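Both lines are quoted verbatim for reference:

——
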Amino acid sequence: MNNLLQLVEAFIFASDSPISLDRLSSLIEQPKSQIRPILKQLQQQYETMERGFYLAEVAGGYQFRTVVELAPWLRKLSKDRSPRFSRAALETLAIIAYRQPVTRAEIEYLRGVDSGGVMKTLLDKNLLRILGKKEIPGRPLIYGTSHHFLEHFGLIALADLPTLKEFTALDPQLVTADPLTPGSGEAL
C-alpha cells in the first residue's frame, strides 16, 4: 500500500482520543511491524518541521497535540478553560496514582481528611476508575487512575510518573517530606 503513511496520519488526525498501534493495525489491515516504523517516521517529521503540533505517544496510543508554548493563544479559541485542580484533588490524584490500587479509607488515612467529595469529582471527570473490591471485611471499593488520567497528563504509562527524587530536583521546596507518608509534610 503506497499511501500507508498518509492513511496512518489520517487515522490519528481523525481519532478523538489516542489511537493504539493495535487499533491502527486492525483498521489498516497491516501488521504492526509495518506501522510502527511509520509512526516513528511521522514523529520525527513533525519534530523537525517546527509546527504548532506534534505526534505524541500518550495513554497507550498516538495523538496529535499542540505545542505547550502556544497554549496562551489557543485558550482564546475556546471559552472552556483547562480544568484546574484544587489542592485536595491533586493530593488525592497523587495518592491514587502512586499507591494504586487503593481504598477510600487508605486515601483518607494518608490525607487525614474525608475525601469522598473529591473522589466523586475525580470519578465524574473520568480521571479515576473503580478497579473492584478489596478482599477484606466490608469489601471496600478499590480505585486506580483511568486511561483518561494518562491522556490528560500526557503520560504513556504510569511508569512515566515522576519520582519523588525528580520532584525534589526541580524544586526542593516543592516537597518537604514524603508526600505519601501520613503526617510527614505537605503533599503535592
